[in-house]
Amino acid sequence: MANKPARSTREAGQDWLLACVRNPTDVRRAWAAEELARIPSGEHWRVAEGPLIPSLGAMKHLGSRRLGPVLVDVAAGRAWWLLPASLRHELDGVPQLAVHPPGWLLVSPPVLYAIGDRGWLEHPDGSGRLTDPTALGVAFGVGGRRPAEALV
Q1: Which residues contact 120 (CB under 8 A, 6 or more apart)?
Q2: 3-state secondary structure of 46
């Protein structure tokens, strides 16, 4: 009996993202037409939006243990971080990040490939892993400064 090829983490991540929407068929249709899909936040995760270049630096400082999915749009210079749905006030003092309310629509390409200038820089991996909001706040640093001891 032949072994099935292992599913990639990107495929698992796409399945996870589709499991987070009420009507995955609509999302699949948009992607099949090479269009971005509108995926509401809130039930499974929340979204923080920030500038792209500082987000790249924050990703580096977070490291893989505390880093969840990050969607970027290179042309717009923006990044969207997926955070736990239980997010409260952990990012209130971080002026570079705007935390969107539950129900906000994330305009997303598939996990498997980018559409235009928008793609997943850190892909969902299927595990449900999200960015730790406290660590994200430290990585962005209040006033642009990162306390070194908080990043270890």
Answers
A1: 13, 69, 70, 71, 72, 109, 111, 114
A2: strand
What's the whole-number average pLDDT of the chain?
90
What does the pLDDT read at residue 65?
81
Task: Give the mean pLDDT of 113-123.
Answer: 97
Instruction: Specify the pLDDT at position 146.
Output: 46
DSSP states of 65-115: GG---EEEETTTTEEEEEEETT--STTTT-TT-EEEPTTPEEEE--SSS-B
Rounded CA separation 124/1 (Å):
31
In this structure, are residues 138 and 151 in contact, taking their beta carbons and an 8 Å threshold?
yes
Among residues 42, 46, 148, 51, the alpha carbon closest in space to that of 94 is found at 51
Please tell me the predicted confidence (pLDDT) of residue 150. Answer: 44
φ, ψ at 39 (rounded to 5°):
-115, 115
Count of C-beta atoms within a 10 Å radius of residue 70: 24
